Amino acid sequence: MPASERVRAALVQMKPAKGRYAENLATAGEAFSELAPDRPELIVFPEAAFTGYFLEGAVYDLARTSDAFANDLAAAWGAACGDAGVDLVAGFFENAGGTFYNSAIYVRIESGRPHIVHVHRKLFLPTYGVFDEERFLSRGRDVGVFDSVAGPAAIVVCEDAWHAVVPTLAAIKGARILIVPSASPGRGIDNGGSGELTSVTRWRNTLADTAAEHGIFVLYAGLAGFEGGKGMTGNSCVIDPWGTVLVQAPALGACIVRADLDLREVVLARANLPLLGDLRAVLPDLLLDDAWPVSRNRNDGDVSAD
Fold first, then answer.
1. Residue 39 forms beta bridges with which residues?
2. Rounded Cα gap, residues 71 and 91, in angstroms
3. How far apart are CA 16 and CA 2, in angstroms?
4. I want to staple 224 with a disulfide (CB 3.0 to 4.6 A). Which of 15, 88, 94, 180 is the partner?
5. In this structure, are residues 10 and 252 in contact, taking their beta carbons and an 8 Å threshold?
6. H or E, element range at 34
7. Distance CA 11, CA 90 (A)
8. pLDDT of 13-33, one tens digit each?
9. CA of 24: how far to CAs of 76, 172, 204, 237, 252, in Å?
10. With 0-12 CB in 10 A as exposed, 13-18 as middle and 19+ as buried, what is 245?
């Protein structure tokens, strides 16, 4: 699909009912109905938007295959918007033949039929503090770039975005839009006397720096609500390639925010601050550094720390 120069996007900040997949799917259908009169080309949901995040062992009961999840999304969309086309991104727990992942799907719906364009499996599974992901889930192995309605795009899930190398790899591979479904519990208080949680401040700064360094749009869809006394911090936002926040949702509650992406800004931002071009030139030398702490000698072909 040739990318347009302008793309209308919407972020659906979900406040899911924990463990009630069908109910949350119905809630997504209500969001689709609300969006239908001025239909966006791209809609993004948060991480674990249809189940809640802190599932522990229940993740095995609520996980879906990517095909089943895409069909469910298409049915919900079709009930609200008929045969109209749309591209959807949503986080879900994936059952891939008995191996379970925290994944996000990019699915294109045309004439009522879903086509899975890409599935990203979360790379970094936090297992510290309130988190326990790696106890129940397997990690992904790569960052893929695919053709979205907005041109080359990549998905990273929550903590993936906090490791600067991950968005960098996506940008090096050609992404000009980075989609970040997230479920981030609030942490820290009174950041510099502002009253804002430190985790919220760090997210905003990290995403803005990522956008500005690589000249890419960042679409961040955050989960909202409370699970087991832990509050998710919402704050879904769209950031342009200059690092400017175009729109931001509040921390609490379900809502929809919209933004028009002028993709010509990617070219202008990269021309004005050509850090990505500079990195492309230097990166081969960096990777050939003998002190680089990786090895390709493992039999399974993995690249692992020595």
1. none
2. 14
3. 34
4. 15
5. no
6. helix 21-35
7. 10
8. 999 999 999 999 999 999 999
9. 11, 36, 27, 21, 17
10. middle
Residues 6 or more apart whose CB falls under 8 angstroms from that of 16 comprise 24, 27, 48, 49, 50, 51, 52, 223, 225
Please give the C-alpha separations between residue 294 and each of 142, 265, 290, 300, in angstroms, as whole numbers: 16, 36, 10, 14
The first and second tokens of residue 182, run together, are 């997230």
* pLDDT per position as a tens digit, 226-263: 987 888 899 999 999 999 999 999 988 999 999 999 99
- The whole-angstrom separation of Cα 204 and Cα 245 is 9
Taking the whole predicted model, whether its pTM rises above 0.90 is answered as: yes
- For the record, the structure tokens of 227 come out as 């699970």
Which runs of E-coded beta strand occur in the chain? 6-13, 42-44, 86-96, 99-110, 113-121, 145-148, 151-155, 177-182, 217-222, 224-227, 230-233, 237-239, 245-248, 255-262, 294-295, 304-305
165 or 190, greater pLDDT = 165
Instruction: Give the model's pLDDT for residue 123.
Output: 97
- d(C-alpha 8, C-alpha 132), whole Å: 36
In sign, the C-alpha dihedral spanning 101, 151, 49, 165 is positive
